[in-house]
Specification:
single chain; mainly alpha; 74% helix; elongated
Length: 167
Amino acid sequence: FKERRRDWRPWTTVLLVSHAIHTLALGLLTYQLGHLPIARMDEAIGSLAWLLIGLYVVVGRRWKVEVVGTVAAPAAAVMTAFAAVTMAGETAAPPRDAWVLVHVGSVIASYAAFGLAATCAALYFWEARQLKKKKLGASVRILPSLDTLDRVAYRFILTGFPLLVLG
């Protein structure tokens, strides 16, 4: 990025396309398994990566924190790669109770919200440190204000905590 330019559209397009492919893969996996892919840990991690990016895409532009995707996307890529490598033909029994779906689904959603909150907090501390050192490089100019990062992290925590309690 150039110092004065905050154009996230090309990266957002790549992220949306990859999320659509991930959605298709999870849909096919759900069809193949006959249940939501949450019965095993690797399936749940793949679903967590999908939800992490989905949550980021929904709120990233709305809350003006597109830069969070620079951390969320690689984290989701690592989780997806781990899930893809470890899914070696083993199958698990489908969840027998609807409460298992509520439990696992809400815990996965809370982890996604907390992951994005942690990303905002890390960016907040990094930017605050750079500002205290008076190093106003291009990366600090790309980041949203400290107030915005703090507010968004707080909102993610407000979203994740009730979901974790439900789980």
